[in-house]
Structure formats: structure tokens, C-alpha cells
């Protein structure tokens, strides 16, 4: 018979408060304007280094274009730009409204915004990026932005504190 023993902090005792430290769950709201659309995103507490480095860039203005290999997404190609972070909270499968930062390596540095079915990839194959922002308001307009970018080309995008 296998016996389970309680590991300190692993199996909570009844009545113990569990969950993340409230100071670690503070999320900053970011306003994103792209084409004629406006979105509000919240920072992801599971990517603290990426969030901190990105916040130093605000307001951040770029061009967003449609992805080439990843499916229904738009991206900001950043070439050799270095944000000074490594991988944290990284994924290849962003959900609608997830914004990832790829710190470079196999492909160029980039930011990708999923508006539909998406698997983050490049000509080198599957990639993973740090999920550092999530769109929480205006998500219903993400597909319209994606389609506009696909058919009309590069769009201006601005990230700023909300």
C-alpha cells in the first residue's frame, strides 16, 4: 500500500489560506490602440521580468502586420532588438487576446497577438513566447483588427498605460 505523507506547504491543511501572494497578483492595465480599435490589456503576473522590461518602453509605438506561419495572429517584428529577458511563462499556443513576447534565438525578436486559432511558429518551426499581456476589454474587435491587417497591410499600434 502506498502511503502519502504531508509535505510542508504541499498539501494544505484544512482552513489554510492558499493562493498567490496578493502583492504578486497586481496587474497593470495597458491601453492598446491599433487601426481604429482600442483594447485594454492586463499584465500577466506569471511573466514579471517581461512585464517590468516592457513597461519601461511605454508609450510604445510600432507597426503590426499579419503573421506568416502562426495562423490567426498579428505580430510586431523586432529584428535584433533585445528586451533583456529570457523565457518565462512561455507558450506556443496563445489563446485569443494573449500577447506574447519572443526574446529571440531561433527567429527574430517579436511580439505576437492572437486573434483566433494560433500556434506560434517561424520558418524555423514552432516557437514559444512569454505570455505577458492579456486583452480583457475590446476582445470582440480582435478578429476585425486581424482581418484588416491581413487584407490592408501594416497598421499603427500604440501601447500605453491605461
Automatic annotation (TrEMBL):
Superkingdom classification of source: Bacteria
Pfam assignment, any one: DUF3830
Matches recorded under InterPro entries: Cyclophilin-like_dom_sf (IPR029000), DUF3830 (IPR024532)
Name of the featured protein: DUF3830 family protein
Originating species: Pigmentiphaga daeguensis
Amino acid at each position: 500500500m502506498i502511503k502519502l505523507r504531508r509535505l510542508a506547504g504541499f498539501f494544505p491543511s484544512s482552513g489554510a489560506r492558499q493562493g498567490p501572494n496578493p502583492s504578486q497578483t497586481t496587474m497593470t492595465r495597458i491601453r492598446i490602440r491599433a487601426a481604429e480599435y482600442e483594447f485594454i490589456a492586463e499584465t500577466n503576473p506569471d511573466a514579471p521580468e517581461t512585464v517590468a522590461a516592457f513597461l519601461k518602453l511605454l508609450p510604445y509605438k510600432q507597426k503590426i502586420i499579419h503573421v506568416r506561419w502562426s495562423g490567426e495572429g498579428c505580430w510586431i517584428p523586432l529584428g535584433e532588438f533585445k528586451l533583456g529577458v529570457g523565457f518565462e511563462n512561455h507558450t506556443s499556443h496563445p489563446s485569443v487576446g494573449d500577447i506574447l513576447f519572443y526574446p529571440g534565438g531561433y527567429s527574430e525578436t517579436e511580439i505576437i497577438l492572437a486573434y483566433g486559432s494560433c500556434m506560434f511558429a517561424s520558418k524555423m518551426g514552432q516557437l514559444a513566447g512569454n505570455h505577458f499581456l492579456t486583452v480583457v476589454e475590446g476582445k470582440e474587435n480582435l478578429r476585425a483588427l486581424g482581418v484588416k491587417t491581413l487584407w490592408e497591410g501594416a497598421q499603427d499600434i500604440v501601447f500605453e498605460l491605461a
